[in-house]
Specification:
about 45% helix; 6 helices; Rossmann fold; 7-stranded mixed sheet; alpha/beta; single chain
């Protein structure tokens, strides 16, 4: 049976999207794992149920998880509750400052779903603090993209090997 890695993201300025794409690119190198990259507004409970592992990539907006990503979790939470226990996940946050509150929110949701964090989360701080910088398209540096690729490659390899 082929394992599926579901990468769900939301991005308004491109940062979290680029992080998710780098993760998916690296995960797809493992031909034993199917990789699905879905925008949060497109993803639903059926996608979550059919996946073997997850990456959740989102921006931190106003010191919280982005609303579109929160909507994804709200729509899927109860339909998958107690049906995905123990599956692996990794969180990735694109933030203007520290990203910690958005990360805490994902961790709380994942804990409720009884998911298992299998790697350290990736937080990319863009330093955007002015209205212009916050609304501007984001560029993610190569070192940070490599961290995202490491998540994808590691999670895919772990799924393929049955470690996760």
């Amino acid at each position: 049976m082929v394992k599926t890695l579901l990468i769900v993201f939301h991005s308004r300025t491109g940062g979290a999207r680029r992080m998710a794409e780098a993760c998916a690119e690296a995960a797809r190198a493992d031909r034993e794992v199917s990789v699905r990259l879905l925008a949060a507004h497109e993803a639903g409970a059926g996608d979550v149920l059919t996946a073997s592992g997850y990456v959740f990539a989102a921006p931190e907006n106003l010191a919280a998880l982005s609303g579109v990503m929160k909507d994804f979790f709200d729509r899927c939470y109860y339909p998958v509750l107690d049906r995905i226990n123990g599956r692996p996940y990794v969180a990735m946050i694109c933030a203007g400052s520290d990203g910690q509150n958005a990360l805490r929110q994902i961790i709380r949701i994942a804990t409720g779903w009884r998911l298992r964090a299998v790697m350290e989360p990736v937080i990319v701080c863009t330093g955007a603090q002015t209205a212009e910088a916050i609304l501007a398209p984001k560029t993610i540096g190569e070192a940070d993209l490599e961290r995202c690729r490491t998540v994808g490659a590691t999670l895919a390899a772990g799924l393929a090997a049955g470690v996760f």
